[in-house]
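Bug #77: duplicate submission created two jobs. Keeping one. Sequence:
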Amino acid sequence: PDGGRLTLLNRELSTRDRSGAARTRLIGSPEELLAVLDERFGLRFDPGTTFACPALDWPPPHAPTPTEEQ
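Kept job's structure:
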């Protein structure tokens, strides 16, 4: 992006700008991974596509706590 560099390793997306400053964020879900692959890398996959990879061991979906349900 803008002369910088994108790196995706397992669930970690790193962005490095021209000055060398880097930012890293963790991809939180399979849906977010598909969005990143599409929007940042131009790679489009069908909705619901999953990748068999031990490094993509997604945390279980958030279950609402009793206070969140109210």
